[in-house]
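Re: the 486-residue chain
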Amino acid sequence: MTLRLWLWALMAAAVPAVSLTDAAEPARADLDSLRQLNRAFVELARKVSPSVVVINVVQNESPAGLQDMEDEEQTDNMPPGFWKEFHKQFKRLPVEKTIGQGSGIVVRENGYILTNGHVIEDAESISVQMQDGKTYKATVRGIDPQSDVAIIKIDAKGLPAAVLGDSDHTQVGELAVAIGAPFGFDYSVTFGHISAKGRSNLIDSFDGGNSADQDFIQTDTLINPGNSGGPLVNIEGEVIGINTLIQGLHSGIGFAVPSNLAKEISEQLIESGRFIRPYLGIGMNAVRDEVELRELIGGIQDGVVVRKIYTNGPAAKSNLKPSDIIIAVDGQPVATPQQLRTIIRGKKIGVPVTLDVFRQGKTIPIQVSPIEWQQPAPVLTKSKSVPETKGKPVDLGITVKPLTPALAGQLGTGLTEGVVVATVDRNSLAARNRIRPGDIVTSVNQQPVGTRKQFQAAIDKADVKKGVLLNLISGNTARFEILKAE
């Protein structure tokens, strides 16, 4: 039963049918609990609203068209950057600039305001409106794109700062209230409850999900465009989340950045204007979500599998390989990418961390020294085509040729071992797994291959019904794919 249905049931039980002779009798004590709940919501809104602000942003870009917004409404699992236009209300100005609107939370009485990064990105000017109608010009203090957390500053003192609660203690099922400016209707209050915690994989890896902090609180509290950056609060009036994402209008599914993560990042943004984020340079996924890999290698049920290794990151300089499974970081077990990110986020730049890695049935230690995250992890670059060469077709639907120094130079790689994909049969297993001419195969089922003969021998030993694990270099990114016959 949803919260709203529960409230209707409570009211129905509290107000019994009465005869005309009973109409003048005083209200029964059964209404007391409902009155108390009503007063609690009223007091909560009265307590928190003065700490909420409406943020108006003028940007140097044209507004999204109506059709674009309709398309976005139908699209699920979009990253904060994609939802930027969708979360805002637009008006065309004579000078072809746009107005975006969002919400924010006063976190320090001297004018520091917490909001979402996508609310204020590309801003030419920012203004902040308080509940009493006062407006201030604001400047950007800092943005952390990976968490979508930002801090802006206004010149004011004695502001009512919100209380940031401990989101780790938030429980699924407890009441939650959102306050913000959905569709420009400022200081709107909606209520619901916490639907889930620890939601991840909302942002696809190709949209920066590999480096993004994805530890969202899910709520059925109604959140709409304009609520972004505003608070999700508990019944005590403590901020437990920063409303950030929605999954379609009127769906009753919204997501908030946990207050503990927002607090950690915002404090560093306030102090230094930026958040220093340690970076390993890997794309990853939970082993529990990699059913085929788990069945293929056996002996492991939990951990984080290395999906990609980026050449500009420190992992590329280590012994770490795609398809390795990280089961612990400095002795702390990890089962999800977010757990790994959280641990790494607390490490120091340049100080090696020890990864316990499961590979070929054994656990080995690998040291990686995190660097400071500077820019989004690169997406796969388009591989150069390789002239078709004669080669014996294999069941995977590809032919390969040796990686010569000349070919390595043509492909822009420093690798000296591996075989290069020459052709890919249309509708083959390889094609369905996005393997392209120019990709470099470095191992088959975790066995290194440096010649066509080694590659073919490894394929002959493999069982496509169980799956064939290929480690590849695509452009500047190391990755793996499992080719499995259906």
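The first strand starts at residue 52 and ends at 59.
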